[in-house]
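We include the entry.

. . .
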Amino acid sequence: MIERDTVTELIAEARLRVDVPLERGGELAVAAQDVLESLAIVRYADVRELGAVDAGDDGLSVAIDCRLTLHVDDATAAAAATRRALRETDRVLGVDRFETVDGPYRIERW
């Protein structure tokens, strides 16, 4: 019998500040998307708008408006827990706005 993998997805719109490597400064939207998609909780990130950019010691702090498709545990499906999980990563420097726009819903993969 084939085993099914079940995940819970959550769609959110957010305004985040992310840490982008300095060498990627010429392509901020793509770099911010790559940073977000490198996080275990983020399946897909759509950067909609860039905001303020600040220089830091190790890179750039970029404010972005984005839409995120998140893979979450049932325990973290609540918006507050998901926001907290994003804040606890090293690459997300701040969560200014986080709003669930769809989900949570379960997806089964074969």
Observations:
- The beta strands are 5-21, 42-55, 59-72, 92-109.
- The mean pLDDT is 85.
- The CA atoms of residues 17 and 63 lie 4 Å apart.
